[in-house]
Structure formats: C-alpha cells, structure tokens
Design goal:
- Chains A, B: GO terms for molecular function: glutathione transferase activity; maleylacetoacetate isomerase activity.
- Two copies of one chain form a homodimer.
- By secondary structure, chain A is an alpha+beta fold.
- Chain A has two domains: 3-79, Glutaredoxin (3-Layer(aba) Sandwich), CATH 3.40.30; 90-225, Glutathione S-transferase Yfyf (Class Pi), Chain A, domain 2 (Up-down Bundle).
- In chain A, 54% of the residues lie in helices and 9% in strands.
- Chain A has eight helices and four strands.
- Chain A has helices spanning 19-30, 69-79, 90-122, 128-139, 143-160, 162-168, 181-196, 207-221; strands spanning 3-8, 35-40, 58-61, 64-67.
- The radius of gyration of chain A is 17 Å and the shape is globular.
Chain lengths: 231, 231
C-alpha cells in the first residue's frame, strides 16, 4: 500500500519545481503519510500509468489514481479523516478554492511572466520544444521577449501579495495558528519561483517572507531540500 | 433581549451605505436573528452607548456590546452555535480573514477611489467636514480631484475581481453551495458601491454580477430594500 506521487522535474531529476506538485507534497506531509515521489519530464506524463492524466501531480494510492492538486487534497481528506485535517471543515474547503483562484489568477501569471525563460533553461532538452511552443502561444511573446520584461514584472510583484501581507500581520498562517492546504496553495507558487528564478522579489523584512520561511520550516524542512536558484 | 445593530447613514436615514455594516446585517440575517437597526451619522457614533466604539457596526445584545464586523460575526457564531454557521468550521473562520484581507486591500481602496466624492454628496451636512478632511488626508487628493479620476478607476475595477470571477465559475458562493460570512464580506463592498455610486462597473453577463444578484436575493431580498444610485 505504498503511495506514489508523480511530480514534474527539470533536466536534473532532483529539480522538482512545479507549484501544483509542491501543493501535493505538502498535503501528503501534512497528513503524515509515507510516499514515494517519482519526478517525470513533461514528455513522460502521457506514457505513465497508462496515460491516466495529462498533468501532474498524479497520486497512486492502493490502486486509486487521482490527478489535480486540489482533487488530491480532497481525496486525502476523505480517505484519511483521522489524520490532521487539510481544510478544517467544509467552510475551509470551500474558501480554499478562493485562495486557489487568487493564487492562480494573480500570482501564477506574474510568476510565469517573471520566470518563464528561466524555467525553459532548467528543462530536459526533450521537454524544451513543447514548453517553448505552448508558453509562447499562451503568453503571446517569445521566451526571450518575456525575459527582457522580467525586471518590470519583478518590480510589480510585491504589490500583488498585499492581501497575504495584510493577513499575516494578523495570524501566522492562512489556516490560522497552524497551516492548512490553503497555505500550501500559495507556498507552492512561491516555492516554484524560488526554485526556478534567480530573481527573488521579496524583501527579507517582508511579512510574506516570514510566512514563507515558516512554510519552508514545516515537516523537517521539506521545502528546503530542493536546490533553489534564489538561494 | 432585543438585539440592536448600530449602522451608518447618510443625510437620508434610510441610506445605510457602509460596507462593514452590511456585513453585520447579513450575518444577523444568516443567523436568523431578529434585530433593530439604528442608523447613525459619523458624528453620532461617539455619543452612542457611552462612546463604546469609534466605528460602526456596533452590536448590543442583552447587555453585551461588540464592534467591528468580523468580531460581531465571531460573537454571533459563539453565542448562537445552534443557528446556521457563518464560518463552516475553524478553517472557514481562518480563511474568511484572507477574504477580508483581499477585499480590504484590493476592493475597498478601488471603491474609495471611484466613489469618495459621491459618498460625500450623500452625507448629512454635519458629517461632511469630517469626511472631507479625513478622506482628503488619507487619499492625498481633494474629493473633486478623486471624482475626476473616477472613470479611470471604474475601467480598472473589473480586473481586480478576477479571483472572485474564477471562483464563481466553480461554485455559486465563496462558501460553496450556500453562502457564508466570506460572501457577505465581499457583498458588503459591492453593496456599498451600488448604493453610493451611479458608476456601476460590472457587465450584466459577468459571473460576479450573477453572484452579487444571488446575494441580493438572500433573506427576502434584504440587500435590495435600500435605495441604490446604481439602480
């Protein structure tokens, strides 16, 4: 009954940079579950587990396959109810979707604009053509054009985090005194940026930085065990 | 054991426009509690209930006084646990603070920039000097200067709601299938804008508009019973 979590990797198998995969890693750690992480390249995903999912993270647990980070968190919450809760009740589960919507509509696009060229540099040569083509189409610019705009995006990043900055003046985690899955949703985004980019946009004295460091400390510093370009 | 809710009014006692007071009204309705609303002018607050609070909403319940909309919601949740929950558990309570932080750091400042001159127009003459002075200091501009910038702020408003727009594609309320206090936090902001401003910035076909209409429908259309400049 080993749990397997398929995640995403760069050319270096230890470079597991995907924000969505980090959410799933932290959710499994939060539940106190043992699991084996198997990092894949983009081009490996379609030939894994019979092509069950086009994306990672993908979880295999005792014959069950689940993809999508939020669906994985919901699966873990339902399957392991006696382990620490990821949502803190139905209200927490519903409002975690708002945190996800905020992270993916405000934070993720900004990180893409900052770091898409640096992500491409980290990928396995086999993944690079797919990534370049799909991202250049999505962003309407070349990766090199995006890199040229990156400093302006870094300068604008700080203000996008204002809601989280205001929150962590009041409580140590989005989940309150202790973290919940909502924390891992936003942690995943900043961990992605930390791993792939040399351009870290937050000041050491920023409350968001202090919150992020608290997340990096969790579960015996799970988040610090990956090599990060931001140091 | 009558519950009294002190709210804010304009020159017209029926013009109860404060976003924070609307949160408290909706929280009381959600709990199914009878209450008497007593609208005050800004300059009445300090001489009400012995100057207990400098701000409204302020709740008096059987000798207890509570001010601040979130504190009122927490008081109601603890005092009336057998009534419908405002948070849906501890996780929902914690994450409602993130919704509050988002609303107050992203939505409220934008509404102030759109409508501060129109709010001033609605106030009782006794309140107007205090309001002008405090808002001009806070905003670093005259009310008339803010009014001149208002169309640009209206044009930028739509994009600020993107996280809520993404969410309501997935579920009818922030609270999930049914509303929670988190919905009233954001409803209060848009209800404020609807009441004070002729400049309604959202398209009829916008998913946020549909969500707002669902909120206006709640509790026998409580939110529609106030006169609104946006119609």
């Amino acid at each position: 009954m080993t749990i397997t979590l398929y995640t995403l990797r760069g050319a270096d198998p230890a470079c597991t940079f995907s924000p969505h995969c980090w959410k799933a890693v932290m959710a499994l750690k939060h539940k106190g579950l043992d699991f084996e992480e198997r990092p894949l390249r983009f081009t490996d995903i379609a030939r894994t587990e019979g092509g069950f999912s086009k994306t990672v993270p993908m979880l295999r647990d005792d014959g069950h396959l689940v993809s999508d980070s939020f669906a994985i968190a919901e699966y873990l919450e339902e399957t392991y109810p006696e382990h620490p809760s990821l949502f803190g009740g139905d209200g927490g589960r519903a409002l975690s979707r708002f945190v996800e919507a905020w992270s993916q509509s405000v934070i993720h696009p900004a990180i893409s604009r900052i770091a898409v060229h640096e992500i491409w540099e980290l990928l396995d040569p086999e993944d690079q053509p797919y990534f370049r083509e799909s991202r250049e189409t999505r962003l309407g610019n070349t990766l090199e054009g995006m890199a040229a705009n990156s400093p302006a995006e870094v300068a604008a990043f700080d203000a996008r985090l204002e809601p989280l900055r205001a929150l962590v003046k009041r409580q140590p985690f989005l989940g309150g005194e202790e973290p919940l899955f909502a924390d891992y949703i936003v942690f995943g985004a900043l961990q992605w940026l930390r791993i792939v980019s040399t351009r870290w946009p937050l000041a050491p004295e920023d409350g968001v930085t202090a919150w992020f460091e608290r997340c990096l400390d969790l579960f015996e510093e799970t988040g610090r065990k990956v090599r990060a370009r931001a140091g």
